[in-house]
Design brief:
With 299 residues, the chain is an alpha/beta fold. It has a single domain, classed as UDP-N-acetylmuramoyl-L-alanine:D-glutamate ligase (3-Layer(aba) Sandwich). Helix content is 38%, strand content 14%. Strands 3-2-1-4-5-6-7-8-9 form a 9-stranded mixed sheet, with helices on both faces. Helix 4 links the parallel strand 4 and strand 5. The protein is globular and about 45 Å long.
Length: 299
């Protein structure tokens, strides 16, 4: 692990008279029958990354399991299909519950289906801040030209294969370069894009950041759910979408490096990343107030 790596964007020190509302109200739509762990990982990561209030919305059959994952987040049940996924009839009530959230996250463990499609279309069409990952990306890839008429600020966290599916029908040819792929897809969708893989690339139009933290031990199911929770939490604390994504990738990878030192790359788990977040965040607070200058590239 390279201990000389430092973040290029920092969180501001917390004011002495701060209250929980100052650090973001995060709404997480996650989980389904048999995939409740994704919601637990995402919610715990958001809490450990400084969110003031975390609310998880999950199908009824997953509610009890998700609630047992941590007493510090709130869990609300959603009406579900026979398969244990979000159903169409639950979407209007869910949208009403999400309207006071500073950041909404959709996707981890949701499974695809008409209910998730209806929710994503509604969220994309309104102003706000939205992070889409996992099954949220899978659902978008089935919708075609989903980025047209988008009003929300959006962060996407795909791997290269997901970008190909997400851009289907756009007439866009995916570049060979990972950096150019991220930039091009960011421009196409008017979104902040985090392209997963070795040396994760974060792009917002022509502004990029190449992350240098992380290791192969993180290549397992659940690690992405942790990353999503971290990014949502940072976005809710006042960073821009690009800043939150860049710092989130750095912290996520650093937590993975710390976990690998303790458990080894073969045996480390996504839960170990969450356990290492307090140490990973030690160097992410600016002693002189907010510092938000991010270079074009870390190559």
């Amino acid at each position: 692990m390279n201990r000389n790596l430092i973040p290029t964007v920092y969180l501001s020190p917390r004011k002495k008279d701060a209250h929980k509302g100052d650090f973001g109200r995060i709404g997480i739509v996650a989980g389904s029958r048999g995939m409740s762990g994704a919601a637990v990982l995402c919610g715990n990561a958001a809490l450990r990354s400084g969110s003031g209030l975390v609310s998880i919305f999950t199908p009824i059959s997953a509610q009890n399991i998700v609630a047992m994952g941590n007493p510090c987040y709130m869990v609300s049940p959603m009406r579900e299909t026979s398969e244990g996924k979000l159903c169409v009839s639950a979407v209007p009530e869910l949208m009403d519950s999400l309207k006071n959230k500073d950041v909404v996250t959709v996707g981890p463990g949701c499974g695809t289906g008409p209910g998730l499609e209806m929710l994503l279309r509604a969220l994309l069409a309104k102003t706000g801040k939205l992070v889409v990952d996992a099954d949220g990306l899978n659902q978008l890839s089935l919708m075609g030209n989903w980025w047209k008429n988008k009003k929300t600020e959006l962060i996407l966290t795909p791997h290269p294969g997901e970008i190909k599916r997400l851009a289907h029908g756009a007439g866009w040819e995916m570049p060979q370069s990972r950096e150019q792929t991220s930039i091009g897809f960011s421009e196409l969708t008017n979104s902040v894009v985090l392209l997963k893989g070795r040396h994760t690339v974060i792009a917002d139009f022509n502004k990029t950041r190449i992350n240098q933290t992380g290791n192969p031990g993180m290549a397992r199911g659940g690690s992405g759910d942790v990353l999503t929770g971290i990014i949502a939490a940072l976005w809710g604390q006042g960073l821009s979408g690009f800043e939150a994504t860049a710092l989130g990738a750095f912290i996520h990878g650093l937590a993975g490096d710390l976990a690998a030192e303790k458990h080894g790359q073969i045996s480390m788990l996504p839960t170990d990343l969450i356990a290492e977040l307090p140490r990973a965040f030690e160097g992410a607070i600016s002693p002189e107030g907010p510092e938000k200058t991010i270079p074009k590239s870390d190559q």
